[in-house]
Amino acid sequence: MTVAVIHNQSDEGRSALTAGIREAGTRGTELVVLHALSGSAEQSAREREIGAVEAAVRAVAPEARIEAAVPDPDATSTLLALIDTVDAELVVIGSRHRSAVGKFLMGQQVQRLLLEIPVEILVVKSR
Length: 127
Hints:
CATH topology: Rossmann fold
Largest sheet: 5 strands, parallel
Low-confidence stretches: none
Distance between the termini: 28 Å
Strand content: 15-25%
CATH superfamily: HUPs
Mean pLDDT: 88
Number of domains: 1
CATH architecture: 3-Layer(aba) Sandwich
CATH class: Alpha Beta
Shape: globular
Radius of gyration: 14 Å
Strand order of the largest sheet: 3-2-1-4-5
Structural class: alpha/beta
Number of strands: 5
């Protein structure tokens, strides 16, 4: 079993990664970082994005396994497929501060992930 972190290059992604590192350590399990690429058709752009993700993750979690994929058909579907392949026991997702209405109308992608992820989920508010 693993702790999976849904990662992006943002404050929310960094908060999720920090919480994922802590949870994997507490549970004594592997940390897997999941990243849906931007979907650029240009190979060099994909390679730069993967390099940036690897650098950001390795700076704080050198032992983490990184799984990245091109969105097919969208980033949410790609992340759900990655979650299935890594045998996660927990998925960590970062969230940003929202107004009362924003909390009620949570972003479609995050809401879909929360509804469709078949395992325990930890939502972490960014700082």
